[in-house]
């Protein structure tokens, strides 16, 4: 197999296996970086490419998959038609809110430890924060357009502190008034993070809101 064919093979693998639709420009940039040039072994090169993709802003890596007029039409499922090839489409978490608990109660979690005899004590810097877990809603991006999504049942791999930039594979899901309705069986959390989107500290990001 010619080394020149590997980028094309990698692009096809990304789409067929995980619904990752990378641009030719990003693939060329990844492949041409001499000091990080992947091995000619396609499986290892594929793993290197996916890892690089997960930790880059999707605006720099991917083809748009959200229709420009999404939410204006009576679309009942997402993704549509041909975009279901590869199991769905990959989107990036841009923002997360808990629609069940107020901002004030979440701020109390950040600044106070668990109450002792009904008296709140200030949380130490290194103490783990135990957020109440309500119902989460996300702003998701394909790198160009954004879309809103809400969990209809708890998706345990995701939380309020899941870092922005995390990639998720959206399989066929219902849409209501432009909102994706997510369940455990139509979402795969792929992981990743883009520190530039949250300053490298998710707790600080939540506190600054």
UniProtKB/TrEMBL annotation:
The RecQ mediated genome instability protein 1 OB-fold domain, residue ranges: 76-198
UniProt cross-references to Pfam families, sorted A to Z: RMI1_N_C
Cellular component aspect of the GO annotation: nuclear body; RecQ family helicase-topoisomerase III complex
Stored InterPro entries: RMI1_N_C_sf (IPR042470), RMI1_OB (IPR013894)
GO biological process, one term: double-strand break repair via homologous recombination
Gene3D superfamilies: RecQ-mediated genome instability protein Rmi1, C-terminal domain
Secretion signal, residue range per the UniProt entry: none
PANTHER family, alphabetized: RECQ-MEDIATED GENOME INSTABILITY PROTEIN 1, RECQ-MEDIATED GENOME INSTABILITY PROTEIN 1 RMI1
Record family assignment: Belongs to the RMI1 family.
Protein name in UniProt: RecQ-mediated genome instability protein 1
Species lineage: Eukaryota, Fungi, Fungi incertae sedis, Mucoromycota, Mucoromycotina
């Amino acid at each position: 197999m010619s080394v020149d064919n590997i980028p094309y093979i990698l692009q096809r693998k990304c789409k067929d296996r995980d619904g990752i639709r990378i641009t030719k420009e990003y693939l060329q940039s990844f492949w041409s970086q001499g000091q990080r040039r992947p091995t000619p072994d396609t499986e290892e090169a594929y793993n290197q490419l996916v890892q690089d993709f997960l930790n880059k802003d999707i605006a720099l890596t991917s083809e748009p998959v959200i229709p420009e007029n999404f939410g204006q039409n009576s679309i009942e499922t997402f993704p549509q038609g041909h975009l279901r090839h590869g199991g769905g489409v990959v989107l990036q978490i841009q923002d997360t809110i808990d629609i069940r608990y107020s901002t004030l109660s979440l701020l109390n979690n950040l600044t106070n430890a668990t109450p002792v005899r009904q008296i709140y004590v200030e949380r130490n810097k290194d103490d783990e924060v135990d957020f109440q877990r309500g119902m989460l809603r996300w702003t998701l991006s394909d790198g160009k357009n954004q879309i809103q999504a809400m969990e209809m049942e708890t998706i345990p791999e995701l939380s309020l502190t899941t870092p922005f930039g995390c990639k998720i594979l959206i399989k066929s899901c219902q849409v209501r008034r432009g909102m994706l309705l997510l369940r455990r069986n139509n979402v795969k959390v792929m992981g990743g993070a883009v520190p530039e989107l949250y300053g490298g500290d998710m707790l600080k990001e939540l506190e600054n809101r």
